[in-house]
Structure formats: structure tokens, C-alpha cells
Design a protein that fits this description.
The protein is an alpha+beta fold and about 230 residues long. The protein has six helices and seven strands. Strand 5 and strand 6 form a beta hairpin.
Amino acid sequence: MINKYQRLFKDEQEENHFWPSFTDLLTSILLCFVLIFISMMVIKSIQIEEMKETIDQIMGVRSELVKDLNAEFQDSTLGIEVDEKTGAIIFDTEILFEYDGAELKDDSFQFLDEFVPKYLDVLLASGYEEYISEIIIEGHADRTDGYLYNLKLSQDRAYSVAEYILGDEFPYKNIQDHLQEKLTVNGKSFSDGRTDENGDYSPEASRRVEFKFRLKDEEILDKTMEILEGN
């Protein structure tokens, strides 16, 4: 009988030794997870701050560029508009093309000879050029006729502008190399129409050509900003 109780007591002691050891193991594992989690949060916090600094820098560049473009063209007689938000240069296609046409008018060459050097003097100035990843010539049409017809028309118009300023007749050969490295051409058909002062759709304002720029990593930064704002 004594042996029986001795065995039971011994088993109980061994069991009591096992559970504290198992609990210590779980505590250690949990502590490791906590430390890893804290480390990840610290790293994420640092990364977020770095992202914010980069975003602020890029947005600061855009703001300064828009300001400089406005200063360059606000008193211009060229009849162009500077988008206050994006810095896009907008002008009516009638400056360059006949209605429903994609061939440059005779007096449009002088317009481009005057506009393009001034535009690039600002855009590719020291301090800005390293941020510019793309210069875009973008054609837009009104809702007359179908989407595909206007897609081709808007693309042809943008291409005609690019063809001239990169061609042999353009007098400023020194800036063509800069353009070739960064220039792209798009047609938007009537997908991005404009309105008049009353908020009504305007075919006249919708028929236009835009010169736009894209900053390096801008799309990534836009998505990052959305994520950060969501947090």
C-alpha cells in the first residue's frame, strides 16, 4: 500500500514538473512573437516616415513646377491655359488644326517654335529635370462621331505635334535629344471632356491638345498616399 501511494506521489510530482516547463516554453514563444511584432511595427513606422518625406518632396516639386509654369505663361499671348493642380498646358486644337483635321496648320509651326522652348526651359531646368520621368503630348476630341474615330483623330493630332518638334524642320535641335528620352504621345478620344463656366459639357473646350509631365515614381507615390491616408 505504501508503495502504491509512493508511486502515485511520484507521478504527481513528475506531472507538476512538466506543466511549469511547458508554460515557460509557451511564455518564451509568446515573448518572441511580441518582440518580432514590435520590431516590425518600428520598421514599418520608419518606412512610413520615409515614404511621407519622399511624397512631400515629390509634391513639393510639382507645386514649384506649377508655380514656375504659371509665371512663365500667365502673360503669354499664345492663348494657353495652365492647369493649377497638375501643371498640364492646355490649348484649343484650333490653334494647331482645322476642324476634324490632324494636319498642322501653317501658322501652328510658329506657335510651337515659340511655345516648346519656353515650356522645356521650365520643365527641364536645373533642379527639375532629375524628377521628370515623362513628357506627354495628349490629344483630345469632342463627342462628334464614334469613340474609335475620335481615338484615331486625337492620336493623330498628338503625333503630328510630336513629329514636328522632333523633325528636321524644328529649329531648336539642342532640345530634341531631351525630348526623345522622355516624350510619349497619347490619344484620349472623348473620354476626358471639359465643361464650360456653367458646368455644361463643352465640345469646343473638349477639343484640345495638352502637354503634361509625369514625375518619377508618381504612380507608386499616389498609391502609397492612398494607403497612408486609409490608415
